[in-house]
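Q: Hi! First time doing this. I have a protein sequence and I read that you can turn it into a structure. Is that right? Here it is:
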Amino acid sequence: MEFADKEYLFLILLLIPYFIWFLLYRKNGEPTMRMSDTYPYAYAPKSWRVRIMWLPNALRLITFVMIIIVLARPMTHNSWRKKTVEGIDIMLAMDVSTSMLAEDLKPNRIEAAKSVASEFILGRPDDNIGLSIFAGEAFTQCPMTVDHQSLLNLLQNVRTDIAATGIIQDGTAVGMGLANSVARLKDSKAKSKVVILLTDGSNNMGDISPMTAAEIARSLDIRVYTIAVGSNNLAPYPQMVAGTVQYVNLRADVDVKTLRSIAEQTGGNFYRATNTGQLKQIYKDIDKLEKTKMDVKKFSKRYEAYQPFALVAVIALLLELLLRFTVLRRVP
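A: Yes, that's right. Below is the predicted 3D structure, encoded as structure tokens:
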């Protein structure tokens, strides 16, 4: 903790003359009574009021000190903290085309992918992780960051209706999704750079082919782990018909050959997930990736911390007044 106005702390030195006055002159101002002999009172028991006569003065001193601390404006430390951690740079490339609403994975492909990816992110607190999403087009949902709470919030906001509502074109631009992730990793200083590409379809959109994007990734020493989601059988897919949801059966159209080639060319692995359990195991396997040291800066937010001291000052002042005007009231 530090103080924004440290000069106010010098006011505490005023306690020195107060103590001198209290010790030397305080008793001269006390009311007295002449007695012929005080010997009988030498061994008289002291009442509880006599025993707490010092308390109002102590409360006054506490109030004084707390007010000075409040005036000095105590604040938390404000700085960047730098530390070296073990981690890698990872970009998650996730397919958000409308076919990801198929319900062969529970509750559907997109929600299962988001849930398992969230667990993966939480399990790697020291990694730089980003998120790229693609359908017929690709864009970065979240750049690489160690602020995983923000990343998780953006991941939970991922929906397939951005393609259905025309915000981006529907389709499956695997090459564009991979290229966008590679672009985010090209300036990375980490020794290990990884793209985890998840899709349920084959490339049918975009200006960059998947193999061209894979070649770029290989030239930049970026490993690509490809995940094909979707069962080998027909999968129930919801469609809106006359204002109601009806299900049709769709067959998974995954280009396994291309995804396998991308992984082999870049030194990664290809996985097939036909259910949520397999998808979880795939992310656990990827979680065993090698790690490399990197520097991370964390920001400690600065805020005013006077409230506890102000509260103590108010309570001490009220207690002093209560004691002085009730049980310790003096006459005259």
